[in-house]
Design brief:
The complex is a heterodimer of chains A (379) and B (106). Chain A is of the alpha+beta class. Chain A folds into two domains: 106 residues, Rieske Iron-sulfur Protein; 202 residues, Alpha-Beta Complex (Naphthalene 1,2-dioxygenase Alpha Subunit, Chain A, domain 1), CATH 3.90.380.10. In chain A, 26% of the residues lie in helices and 27% in strands. Chain A is globular and about 70 Å long. Chain B contains no helices and ten strands. The model of chain B has no long low-confidence stretch (mean pLDDT 94). Classes of the chains: A alpha+beta (379), B mainly beta (106).
């Protein structure tokens, strides 16, 4: 098998078709969705260099709370060593590399299950049993720390040795996303679903307005007027938009109280944004959602969608029941999409697959697919 | 209520500077022979999931937990080295005619 760089070079003429202006462009070639070599290169060029949201501060509210997570097989430990401190570090023992923590919960320290090396909640080595006679200096040793930035309740980290300044990365969204006040919200539920397709198909699907009226007709599609949507395209593959839709419920009726910052807006307000590579932010008049799209292999992806509300929503009558309905509604949307993106995945590996022309409604996909080419092969 | 004195072992069960695990009323206990003097503490380390009876007696009166090498003073139960921070419960011991008796502390 050729290396990823050779494969990307061979796809060069196909990329030129995606590079054309929207009304003449074609979607990305199947190879970028199916090749294991390109997937590995995406890890290096995209997921190991970009700022990534790996959870929310309200998931670990108390000192000693922690959670673990894998980003493309890189295990990390997210913890709260002090009231006003969030720590992210590699979940790899300093001895043989075994994960010192698993799952999530509360701990006073982490004891590696293999040889009992002991680390405090912030990742500092406290004890290395049986090492008294070792001549290696372990004083001050700690699990490899990663940078941490908190933005509107989200914990961002970066695997790069020299990450781009976070403030520069988030600047556009900080300035323009007035509607995504997730720092004023609490996590009500996390929807997690595994899908058998490449991660990019799901990122694209979450932007794709063109399909909404077709496959989501019975859930929410009938209420979105796709042709009226205008995208604001930002640098680095980002975008945001505002349009008229209806709340995310089966009946289309608003269930939860109107968000404090949407009081003076139309009841049908809908806002959406994308932060490259894998975040999709969304608001309806009564709720916020943030989708995380996590690659787990070239052909599998995990969707993690946080359902967020301000405090007031949690005290409505029958909250638990309403939340269950709402989260079921969101899951149903994902399952409607899953059948499509899994079929797409199948096609992407076929020698007969030829990417079709983009629809005018696919402006944001055009923007995103072109940004992908920029990141992977240079501008 | 004062607990009863219970016979738990004989002196010959425990070599000098060694430990011996017993159970009293279902509670795991560690007995120590420190230079011919007998002591008892709870056996489960107050830090991790380990039995102190599997550890080594050091520097005279310290028991070192085998898991993370934290230590307690066998005489007082006081934590002496990290990661042990919570004292270990001590129990009264007396020896009569080669038999070790113990009174459980709650």
């Amino acid at each position: 098998m050729e290396t990823a760089t050779t494969q990307l070079k061979q796809l060069g003429p196909r990329f030129e078709l995606t590079r054309k202006d929207l009304l003449n462009a074609r979607h990305l070639p199947g190879g970028v969705y199916s090749s294991p070599e390109i997937y590995e290169l995406e890890k290096e060029r995209i997921f190991m260099t970009h700022w990534l949201s790996v959870g929310r501060v309200d998931e670990i509210p108390n000192v000693g709370d922690y959670m673990t997570f894998d980003v493309m097989n890189e295990p990390i430990l997210i913890s709260r060593p002090a009231e006003d401190e969030i720590n992210v570090c590699m979940n790899m023992c300093l001895h043989r590399g075994v994960a010192v923590a698993s799952g999530c919960g509360h701990a006073k320290d982490f004891s590696c299950p293999y040889h009992a090396w002991l680390f405090d909640v912030g990742g500092k080595l406290i004890a290395a049993p049986g090492m008294k006679e070792s001549e290696v200096d372990l004083s001050g040793a700690r699990l490899k720390p990663l940078p941490v930035k908190i933005w509107r309740g989200w914990i961002f980290t970066n695997f790069s040795e020299n990450p781009r300044p976070f403030e520069e990365f988030i600047d556009t969204y900080e300035k323009k996303l007035w509607w995504f006040q997730s720092g004023e919200c609490k996590t009500a539920h996390k929807v997690e679903i595994d899908i058998k397709c490449n991660w990019k198909f799901l990122v694209e699907n979450l932007i794709d307005i063109y399909h909404v009226g077709v496959i989501h007709k019975s859930t929410f599609g009938g209420f979105v007027k796709g042709e009226k949507i205008k995208f604001n395209l930002e640098k680095d593959g980002g975008w945001h938009t505002q349009y008229e839709a209806r709340p995310h419920s089966k009946s289309g009726e608003q269930v939860f109280p109107t968000l404090p910052w949407a009081q003076d807006k139309s009841s049908g307000i809908a806002c959406k944004a994308g932060i490259y590579p894998n975040l999709n932010l969304s608001m309806r008049a009564d709720s916020l959602r943030m989708w995380h799209v996590w690659p787990t292999s070239p052909g599998t992806t995990r969707i993690v969608c946080y359902l967020l509300f301000p405090e007031a929503a949690f005290s409505i009558p029958n909250f638990d029941e309403e939340l269950k309905k709402y989260s079921g509604f969101v899951e149903q949307i994902v399952y409607e999409d899953a059948a499509m993106v899994e079929s797409l995945q199948n096609a992407s590996g076929s020698k007969f697959f030829k990417p079709g022309p983009m629809a005018p409604l696919e402006e944001a996909l055009h923007h995103l697919e072109n940004h992908y080419i920029d990141v992977m092969v240079g501008e | 209520m004062t607990q009863q004195w219970v016979a738990v072992a004989t002196c010959s069960d425990i070599s000098e500077d060694d430990t011996y695990a017993v159970e009293v009323d279902g509670r795991p206990i560690c007995l120590y022979n420190v230079a011919g003097e007998y002591f008892a503490t709870d056996n489960k380390c107050t830090h991790g999931d380990a039995d102190l009876s599997d550890g080594l007696i050091q520097d005279g009166h310290l028991i070192e937990c085998p898991l993370h090498e934290g230590t307690f003073d066998i005489r007082s139960g006081k934590p002496m080295r990290a990661p042990c921070v919570e004292a270990i419960r001590c129990h009264k011991v007396r020896v009569q005619q080669g038999v070790i008796y113990l009174q459980l502390e709650n």
